[in-house]
Amino acid sequence: MRLEGWNAIVSGGAAGAGGAASELFASEGARVTIVDIQEAAGEATAARIRDAGGEASFVRADVSDGAQVAAAVSRILERFGGRIDTLYNHAGTVIVKPFLDTTEADWDWMMGVNVRSMFLMTKAVLPAMLAAGKGTIVNTSSISAVAGTPKEVLYCTSKGACHMFTRAIAVEFRDQGIRCNAVCPGFIRTDHGLRELKELRALGVDVTEEDIVKLQGRICEPEEVASAALFLSGPESSFVNGETLFVDNAMLVGT
Predict the structure, then answer these.
(1) Catalytic residue (choose from 6, 25, 58, 155)
(2) Which contiguous run of DSSP H or E holds residue 7?
(3) H helices within 28-101, ranges in order?
(4) Tens-place pLDDT, residues 43-88
(5) pTM of the predicted protein model
(6) Catalytic residue at 88?
C-alpha cells in the first residue's frame, strides 16, 4: 500500500498504460480520479477498480482544452477536499506520417494533446500541491524524445518538449516540496502502440516483430510502464527529481 491515503489523478487513465496505472495506483491505496475523453472505457476502469475494493471515479475532459481542465480539476479538488498528492500526465497521441505530408492542423493537434495537456493539468494541480508543501508529478514521455523515428517528426518533437518540461518544473519547484519526473517507454503492447507499429510498417519503417525483438528484446507490457510511473509517483523515489526513466529494456543503450 505504497500510496495509502493518497489522492491521485491520471490523465489518459481510461485504457492502455494509463488504465494499468489507474488500477495499480488504486491497488496501492490511492483514491484515483481518471481524466480522459474515453467515457465508456474510463467508467469501466473506475468500476473495475471499485469492484476490486479500491476507490476510483471518472471525469470526462479533453485535457488539451483549458476550460475543460479547469472544470475537471475543480470538481476533483472538491471531491478530494482540496488535496492532490500525485498527478500522472499520461494522455497522449501519435501521428505517423511522412513529414512533408504533415499539416499545421496535425502540428496543433499533436502539441495540444502531448504538450499543452501537461501544461494545463500541471498548472491546475500545482497550487493545491504547493499549499500542502508536497506533491509528485509524472509525465509520460518516450524513447522518441531522444531517438528520432522516421515518419514521426511531430511526435518526437512533442516528446522532446515533455523532457524539458519535466526538468524545468522539477528545478523551479524542488524547494517547495514538488517532484517532477518522466517515464519513457519503448514500444508498448496497447491499442495505441500496436496501431503505431502497424502504421509505421505500412510506410516501410523496420518495426516488424523480429525488429522489436532486436531493438528491445520483446514488446513492453502496459503494466510495466505503470510500475515505473508508480515508483516515480511514490515515496520510494523521494530523492529522484527531474529524471527521465526509460522503460525500454536497454533499447537505447544497446544501439
Answers:
(1) 155
(2) strand 7-11
(3) 39-51, 66-79
(4) 999 999 999 999 999 999 999 999 999 999 999 999 999 999 999 9
(5) 0.96
(6) no
